[in-house]
Amino acid sequence: MSRGRQAILLLHNHEPPPGLAGTLPFPLLPVMGRPLADHVLELLAGGGVRRVLALAGDMAHELRSHLGDGTRFGLELTLEAQSGRPGVFESLDRLRSRLDESFWLVPCPALWEGVPDLPDEAGPAWLQAPDGTVPCLFLRRDALGPDLPAGVRSGADAARALHGAALPVAAAWEARDLAGWWRLHRDALAGRLPSLVLTGRELSPGVRVGAACVVHPDAALQPPVVVAAGCSVGAGARVGPEAVLGEGCILEAGAEVREAAVLPGSYVGRGVTVESALVAGPLLVRLPGGEVLHSPDPFLLGEARAAGARRGLPPLLGRLLAGAALLPALPILLGMILAHAFRPGAGLLTRIEVAGQEAVADLSGLRAPRPVRIWRFASRRELWRRLPALLDVAAGRLALVGVEPLPLAEAAALAEPWERLRFLAPPGLVQPWHGLPPGEWEPEEKRVMEGYYARTRTLAGDVGILGRWLGRLL
Predict the structure, then answer these.
(1) CATH architecture of residue range(s) 199-308
(2) Has residue 421 got a pLDDT over 90?
(3) Which fold has domain 6-176?
(4) Global confidence as pTM
């Protein structure tokens, strides 16, 4: 695969998955824990393509937000929205003025193994697998005449309409519908796509786990299985064989996932079994048939974000406990106020701005941490340093137990999905590691603990953290 520096990628040319409309763009369905579109772009970049013009259908904005300008793939990517589902040649006709003299065409989300070189005098040519699948074509702009048929969907049908040469490849997969993606998903897990770029570490043959995952020692991962970054797998849970968990998923104790894919940010409740299905939040899609079930109970299937947000120490209880603690602490607080009054330039008692939980920032729908102002006292003693923040807990600005109140600039630098899981929980006076034996924790270790805490917080857990911290201080 060479000479063609431009590729046209038709991401709109697929059957919309039933029941998933508005949930996730089809090209972002996972293959080995990473979006299918990422693999396609990496394959094109590896074949010498430098510029990609992509047409997207439903949820084009979400696709554009994920793929960006293509820089991270080594490409110059332009993505445009396409209404309806025009055929392959109708789409090319729309783009005629922007086509290079020769270019590659990927008619739908597709992957292939083996990249042959083009003949010296290449006219129309196409990659063809032994089963007849044509995932990619090499075309010349002057060969696109007006007599090409309308309504062509597959690469094989497009190739039959042209006069050219077939270039054999070892294998190829077209994901034009949910069943096609399911075949691709299972073949990738079986190791039939060895050229895919994968993330995470292979803990044992066929078991791949991403960064910042928390897998209980009593959980079982049966190969082939992929657990993407930021996942939580509870005690007694079983994952695999032929299972993929997307980023930030939660599997509660005793849950089982086999021959299935769980989309990023989904929650599988205690004791729930998922088999031969795709999970997208509260939706369960049977595979390969596509029948859709909606879970009415968020404690069975739901969003991981909601699962973490609905638990933990109730805010009202935290405020009442803080108010009760303020009564015996009043003399110390008055002393702090007097010390600050006599030495105003020393900055003993200050209010700092920290990052709170994520909320929708504006009409764009983007989420950002909400700024929160809290009190701090300059002291080497941890208890004295934190004591004024009891006022913030009592006022509802701060939780009694939560994640570390980070300065806004430091919070903004947390860009990875697993790092931002911490924003599912409120900032707190006491943090998760305060319930552990004393130690020096690196910032990355704290972010991992916060992500796990935010997704699995419970009332009993918060009470335990608070009790152990107080016992250590007193």
Answers:
(1) 3 Solenoid (2.160)
(2) no
(3) Spore Coat Polysaccharide Biosynthesis Protein SpsA; Chain A (3.90.550)
(4) 0.70
